[in-house]
Amino acid sequence: MFNYFGYPVPMVLPTRWLSAHEQQCWRAFLIACQSLISGIDAQLLRDSGLPHGYYEILVHLSEAPGRALRMSELARASTYSKSRLSHAVARLEDRGWVKRLECPTDRRGQIAQLTDEGFVTLAAAAPGHVEHVRQALIDVLTPEQLTQLGEISAAIIAAAKEGTGQGHGVCEPPECEQDPAADVA
Fold this sequence. Notes:
mainly alpha; three-stranded antiparallel β-sheet; flat
């Protein structure tokens, strides 16, 4: 169906309202997510002076070869938009934890690299962060629930990626146990 100007008219579908049970689950999920992220952010700020988003950037850089990623790759790996990421990396540069380098293969590209000072900051923040994540999420779930959480999260991420063309890494159950001291989280 087209309007007078020849543009397609969007088809209006009836609203699929949530049932009482669906609404209860949705609201519980929202509160759980907000509580978890608020608690993580508060712990990191209190104990390390860095917000969770900055911690996330430092983790991604610490896990990359040479502790460096193109800004576009870092944006895809993180929960930041490209513009917010650029601002956050500038703040991390001001603190001496990250430095920006010109991309040798693309004049328009930039690379964010974790400095030694940034790695020391991350290493100091990691134990308290991991303990908080363990207490707030991992230890309150059974192993089966944790596996289900990974599967549920993967489904939500896939749906979001399908709808927006974006997405983030998927939590997969480990095939073997890792050395917990190696985890930065």
